[in-house]
Design brief:
heterodimer; A: mainly alpha; globular; B: mainly alpha; elongated
Chain lengths: ~525, ~100
């Protein structure tokens, strides 16, 4: 347990008031329309959604996740956190295409890219999936806060989960995305400042950079400072084949839409930017900050390792960065640190509350239940669904045990079978809604089969995660490629309209020729 | 760098060109350099500082190459945005 002084509690109360009021102040803007409640009226300069990208992807579970992989693998563990690099290419390819589509959500984009029943099924499927996923993410991020509060105050885990998610919901309910993005800007600054202070403090406490290196050298573990200390091509705990797989997934994945679970939150930020250029820079800059932050954390965790080597319990070493702050910061600063943890926490919670509500409102209620709904009603539906997501997240949060286990499953497996189809839908005109839909359905079954069922019955051995990825990609392709060719291409009228509006990259020649024939595009020389 | 085009007409900017490809190559390299450079620099390794400089150069180059094109695309697209938004509302209301 950590003992707080009065100064510590003052920090916390001031920060909480500042964060909640700064969000709620935008109540009047948020309630104007569906576009305002979910996209801030599509008028934000790039640095606002960029700060939101950074703040959203700095959650209470993030330092646990980074601590877990760095403590276990040393500096090479930064590659586990390099998934966010999908924005490197996405910023200049899929973000541009998606921003031009103007779709509120990825689910809505499906009905612009595809046509007919297949498109509607995809929209409904993705909308339902995203409502579930956001509730799920809220649960795992929320329970991470519960663990931190348990570590600090010995509160039961549910208290931290319920208390801070509920406080955050105040401004999300009031101002929607306006509240989210404005509070994110402030929270992002607070979080960055504290991450820098605590991490540098931890590095100094461990003896400074040279002290860390000397101590690692003395215990024969200097390899921990080498980001490329691979254990072999395909052997050991950190094979090169894993690294190559991860780089392919992260970097090439940026060409597609939905290749990473983070895409859905970023898609909302892309659409809230005022121009295509702002959209590109927003996700690029936000992610650059995320990558810089991970490296800073990584070195601080190396410092923790030399202070406390030999911890075998994952649940214990996942708290490494938090322990650096609470054990080494001077009295009076601990409250400042905890207030920043609250900022880190609620910036993520606010995003997923609003994002889940966006799918529930725009794609389910507005499109399927009440297409003639007024703007006022849509804003209220947004608020009600926000509340439902909040309550659902409490249930999921209390069901989760190990943060890292869930994150690895979510990052690797839940995206594996749809990684390539998510690229194909962007770059290949002939890929149709039935192909994409079948890849989703196949992936759900295949991921459980490959990861748990088949190894349990000894049909296949337990495979490393990178091999599971390639196997699922191959098995999935055996299903969705034949289905694509056995079903007709999308309606050419729809494809031409989509092409002229979005100008996708890749193999679109027949659609391009048709657009030129109709005089919608200038014929090339 | 005369082979990098810095002046774009709207219609030309909408096509995918070598400038996009160059940005897509520079961008992940910049991220990678940023990740490694910061970590090694914090351990006071000289190579870390060098890699950070490389990352900064890559970022400047990337913006130099892609920014004029992004500006042209944005200006041209803004003119059509309202019309596209109307279509979007028709789709959600099942009018199209």
């Amino acid at each position: 347990m950590v003992v707080f002084t009065i100064l510590d509690w003052i920090w916390i109360v001031i920060f909480l008031l500042l964060m909640i009021i700064s969000g709620a102040l935008f109540y009047r803007l948020g309630k104007r329309s569906e576009s305002d409640f979910f996209l801030a009226g599509r008028g934000l300069p790039w640095w606002l959604p960029a700060s939101s990208v950074y703040a959203t992807h700095t959650a209470t579970d993030t330092p646990m996740w980074v601590s877990g992989v760095i403590y276990k693998y040393g500096l090479r563990g930064i590659w586990y956190t390099f998934f966010s690099a999908w924005c490197a290419i996405s910023a200049f390819v899929s973000a541009r295409i998606f921003r031009r589509s103007l779709a509120y959500t990825q689910a809505e984009w499906q009905t612009l890219r595809f046509s007919g029943l297949g498109a509607e099924l995809l929209r409904g499927w993705l909308a339902g999936w995203q409502v579930f996923m956001n509730m799920f993410i809220l649960g795992w991020v929320g329970i991470a806060m519960g663990k931190v509060c348990h570590f600090l105050f010995n509160w039961p885990e549910w208290v931290g989960l319920v208390l801070f998610s509920s406080l955050c919901a105040i401004y999300v309910l009031a101002a929607g995305y306006w509240g989210v993005v404005m509070a994110d800007f402030q929270q992002g600054i607070i979080a960055l400042a504290v991450i820098v202070i605590v991490s540098l403090w931890g590095i100094v406490a461990a003896g400074g950079p040279q002290g860390i290196i000397n101590k690692l050298d003395s215990i024969g573990e200097l390899w921990r400072t080498n980001p490329f200390a691979f254990s072999g091509w395909s052997t050991g705990d950190f094979p090169l084949a894993w690294f190559i797989t991860m780089m392919v997934i992260a970097v090439i994945g940026g060409v597609g839409m939905g290749t990473s679970i983070d895409w859905y939150a970023e898609a909302q930020r892309i659409q809230s930017a005022r121009t295509v250029r702002d959209a590109s820079y927003s996700i690029w800059a936000g992610t650059a900050l995320v990558i810089a932050r991970n490296s800073l954390w990584a070195v601080a965790i190396l410092g923790f390792y030399v202070l406390y080597p030999g911890i075998t319990s994952q649940a214990s070493y996942e708290l490494a960065w938090y322990r650096l702050g609470f054990e080494f910061l001077p009295a009076g600063m601990v409250g400042f640190f905890f207030a920043a943890i609250v900022a880190i926490h609620i910036s993520t919670i606010s995003t997923h509350l609003n994002l889940g509500a966006l799918y529930a409102t725009r794609d389910i209620y507005h499109h399927y239940i009440n297409p003639r709904a007024s703007e006022k009603r849509l804003v209220w539906v947004g608020r009600i669904t926000t509340l439902i997501l909040l309550l659902g997240s409490f249930m999921y949060g209390l069901m989760m045990e190990e943060i890292t286990k869930w994150l690895i499953f979510a990052l690797w497996i839940m995206a594996a079978g749809i990684w390539l189809p998510s690229i194909l839908q962007v770059i290949w005109w002939r890929f149709n809604s039935w192909g994409y839909l079948s890849s989703w359905i196949a992936n759900l079954g295949l991921s459980w089969l490959v990861v748990w069922v088949l190894p349990a019955f000894k049909v296949i051995p337990v495979l490393p995660d990178y091999q599971q990825f390639w196997l699922m990609m191959l098995l999935g392709a055996l299903i969705y490629i034949p289905i694509t060719f056995l079903t007709p291409p999308e309606d050419m009228e729809k494809l031409v309209k989509y092409y002229v509006m979005s100008r996708p990259v890749g193999w679109w020649e027949p659609v391009r020729r048709e657009a030129e024939k109709r005089g919608l595009l200038k014929t090339r020389e | 760098m005369s082979w990098i085009r810095r002046s774009w007409k709207a219609e030309e900017a909408n096509e995918w060109t070598k400038e996009d490809l160059i940005a897509c190559i520079l961008s992940p390299l910049a991220y990678t350099a940023l990740a490694i450079g910061i970590a090694l620099a914090l351990l006071l390794k000289f190579v870390g500082f060098l890699i950070i400089i490389v990352a900064i150069v890559l970022i400047i180059l990337m913006i130099y190459v892609i920014d004029p094109k992004l500006k042209a695309i944005s200006t041209e697209y803004e003119k059509k945005q309202n019309e596209y938004l109307e279509d979007l509302e028709k789709i959600i209301r099942w009018e199209e």
